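Hi support team,

I submitted a single chain yesterday and got back a structure, but I'm not sure I'm reading the token output correctly. Could someone confirm the output below corresponds to the sequence I sent? I've pasted both exactly as they appear in my results page.

Thanks,
R.
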Amino acid sequence: MKKTILIITLLNSLYGYESLKYNGEELDVPVNTDSWTRLIFDSKVNADPIYSKEKNLALKKAYNSVFIKYKPVQEVEIMGKVEVVKNIDYSKAQEVELFVSTDNGTYVFNIKPNIENVASSRTYKIINQMNNTKDLLKFETDPVRSVLKKLTKSALTEYFVDGYRVVKSNAPIKFTVKGEELDLVLDKKLIGKLYTVHIYNLPLLLESVTNKDFIDLPLANKRSISVNGSKLVVVTGN
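Hi R., thanks for writing in. Yes, this is the structure output for that exact sequence:
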């Protein structure tokens, strides 16, 4: 949804986090060597994270978050009875495989030292694409007529169904309508697991066209066709 995307973008800026999509494969996470990095999950972290203790990594967990920092190697000199830190060395930081268990699943990360330290601290919100896929399949396996109606409505209102990938386009295709060859411009595609929604912009000179005028549109496995004003929405099966 456009409004949802806008709100999420504003919140990301306000709270200063980046979103990382997790699809079940090991995910690289850059961690600054001199400050904490926070991972935020969509459910409670229910066990201590697992990692190789010899890799100089410090971790803390708090409800749905894990905080990560590299431990420096400190060069200490005893002056009288006082220990004085002469040097702090982060150069020994190494990549670490990290396992995090939450109420909604287990995640695997490859923690990488960010030697350049672009930001003083970082926060990443982990988006579990696997959960989205389950919810999407649940939606798409509802009665077919209901799913097609909802997909068409979402395309016309641009309140897109959660979990559908939006692919922008500006590709014209030649198509003959009422004896006249026209360029139909594909505005965008919404790609799900079982269905894809094709949204076309119709030329203004097209008047009194109906769904039947687009039955021969060169798209495989068409499931529904809808014309509404200057929009043509075609749902196909994947």
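A quick pointer for reading it: The helical segments are 2-15, 129-140, 144-157. Let us know if anything else looks off.

Best,
Support desk
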